[in-house]
Amino acid sequence: MAMVLTRLRLSRKSRWMDRIQSRCSTTGIAIIVMLLLAPPAVGELVVLVGGGVLKVEGFHRDGDRIRLLLTSGGVLSLSMLRIERIVADEVQEETDAERLWDGADLAIAFSEGQHISPLPFGELIYEAAKRHAINPRLVAAMVETESGFDPYAVSDRGAAGLLQLMPATAHRFGLSEQEVFDPERNLDAGVRYIRWLSEHFDQQLPLVLAGYNAGEATVERFGGVPPYRETRNYIRRVYSAATASTADPAAE
């Protein structure tokens, strides 16, 4: 009788354990499925001067240096002068990648008939654009998109001033750390960079804007406008700001 009871208890325990294991297995599968279906965290792509790219989980600026949290778990400290751009690593699906700038009438080159509406720093924008043979309406739209006409704007990525120059870009065009906040100097350096990009990309404005946002090396790597949502949205915003502006002879 004792043996029968023992076998009965073992049988019940076995069935109980089977149910527990089955539930654990089901729960485990559910968790795995949830992780697989969960949208991936958006990291950052750090474009280095010279064209190298690092994929990072995050970054922290500390003065003239930046600490990069690598996807491998390590930390890398670099001079900001080695960073060309930092772009959100979020790719836009092709089905959503509407080229809203197609067909928009927005010239790169300067012509005497171009005017801009009264704007903050409008005279300086017009002078810099004319000096470097760039459409002032394009420059004004980029300033609006980049900084909202705030000469002291600084992004969390380190871009500064009216045209949001990264330290490496400011250094490349001869600006000191203090001069980047001078509206006239910032505009002159930024417009010179736009002119360089226009010559480098054969006057193709979408590529010029993509290069300004994500770096010319990124455009070259993809052979065109990169698929990053941030860059494509940037192009749309500049086109929208430029085409929404109205001509005003008094702005000349």
Topology:
Blueprint: H1 2-37, E1 44-48, E2 53-62, E3 65-70, E4 75-79, E5 83-88, H2 122-131, H3 136-147, H4 167-172, H5 183-200, H6 205-214, H7 216-222, H8 229-244
Antiparallel strand pairs: 1-2, 1-5, 2-3, 3-4
Task: Characterise this structure.
The protein is α+β, with helices and mostly antiparallel strands and 252 residues long. The chain has three domains: 38 residues; 45 residues, SH3 type barrels (Roll); 158 residues, Lysozyme (Orthogonal Bundle), CATH 1.10.530.10. 46% of the residues lie in helices and 13% in strands. The chain is built from eight helices and five strands; from the N terminus they run H-E-E-E-E-E-H-H-H-H-H-H-H. The chain has a five-stranded antiparallel beta sheet with strand order 4-3-2-1-5. Helix 2 crosses helix 3, helix 3 packs across helix 8 and helix 6 crosses helix 7. The relative contact order is 0.13. The N terminus and C terminus are likely disordered.
Secondary-structure arrangement, i.e. CATH architecture of the largest domain: Orthogonal Bundle
Percentage of residues in helical conformation: 40-55%
Helix vs. strand class: alpha+beta
Strand content: 5-15%
Q: Tell me the span between the first and last alpha carbons.
A: 108 Å
The biggest sheet, with number of strands, parallel, antiparallel or mixed sense and barrel status, is: 5 strands, antiparallel
Main sheet: strand order: 4-3-2-1-5
